[in-house]
Amino acid sequence: MLTLNATDLARQLIGFDTINPVGNEKQISEFLGGYLEARGFSVRLLPFGNDRYNLVARKGGRSGKLPICFTGHMDTVPLGAMEWRHDPFAGEISHGRLYGRGACDMKSGIAAVTSAAIEVGDQLDSGPGVVLIFTGGEETGCEGAHHLVRDLASVGPVGALVVAEPTGLKPFGGHKGALWLRGVCHGRTAHGSAPHLGENAVYKIARKVTRLEEFNFGNLKDEIFGVPSLNVGTVEGGQNPNSVPDRAAISIDIRSLPGQRHQQIKQQLITQVGEGIDIEIVSDLPSVWTEPDNFWLKSVERIAGEVQGLHFESASAPYFTDASVLTPFFGGVPTVILGPGEISVAHKTDEYCEIRQIEQAVEIYRAIISSWTGKSPE
């Protein structure tokens, strides 16, 4: 099998339709698994549903030091309603950009990680080694990662974690937490011409949404993470125009700061909206944070800065990643989010990644691995 450069590998990955729902990560994981096995990696494909897969690959691991781990997700979000100018599954290249669904979030990151690990493969055999974790189901609340960590033997311990999500190649020492809630109001159905005989659940939930717009986190603000946020993402209710709806539901997305307790936030929210709504937790993902003075994190910041000719200060990501699941699973290991692509174009029509960033990501990852193994990059 021909060894591809990172950009061409990313083009191959974009060609797999892994839109979630439903994900269907089987084919892309089989491709990546075969690609890595042919280059000396041991690979395990771990199913967690119908055509849903996680991939764990490793190479090396023969010293007293734990391996370094890189992770990324194989699923993508839907295409949206707008027409694409570039085929979302063709991996088209134009004016230095690679286009396609997942080009930014985050198949270019997976390709860069894979290419870097292959390029330093000879270094890995006699040292602590590297573990690659490519998950499914991240876009819907880290579903694949939750399944993965139920089987410690599939992964084993690691010493540090690099999440190749799009950061514009800026190293982030962590990210906010995510608390997804679902609220449901119930009413009583009746004919639309006699609404006084029913109880309209849509009216009920509309009043709750208005109160949520006024929700206050107590003027919390963090110097690095900023402020927590709340967004009502969906509203649904009713079945037809001429019936009084007896059920209505909303989805709520809260992004929290380190130190905030999600159960406490939920209780505050219930107090804010009042009685008459059932609220349940859909997804509960904690924030992630590595202290700025951590020696390994500072070395990653230095490496990323040297490759790009920049200087980086402590920063965080506003979105969640699989690190919410994997970092606690690995015992709170130092974690950095660092990958090619700008988050401002992720999930958008005509999503793209700058090819220059893909190439620089390979160089950065290669240097991070070499630093971890104690060997100079070639």
Give structural notes.
This protein is an alpha+beta fold and 378 residues long. It has two domains: 6-175 and 287-373, Aminopeptidase; 177-285, Alpha-Beta Plaits. The protein contains ten helices and 15 strands. The protein has helices spanning 6-14, 26-37, 103-119, 121-124, 143-148, 201-213, 262-273, 295-308, 323-329, 355-373, and strands at residues 42-49, 52-59, 68-73, 93-94, 97-99, 130-135, 160-163, 174-175, 177-186, 229-237, 247-256, 278-285, 288-289, 335-337, 352-354. The strands form four sheets. The chain has a six-stranded mixed sheet with strand order 1-2-6-3-7-14, with helices on both faces. It has a four-stranded antiparallel sheet with strand order 10-11-9-12, covered by helices on one side. Strand 1 (42-49) and strand 2 (52-59) form a beta hairpin. Helix 8 (295-308) packs across helix 10. The mean pLDDT is 95.
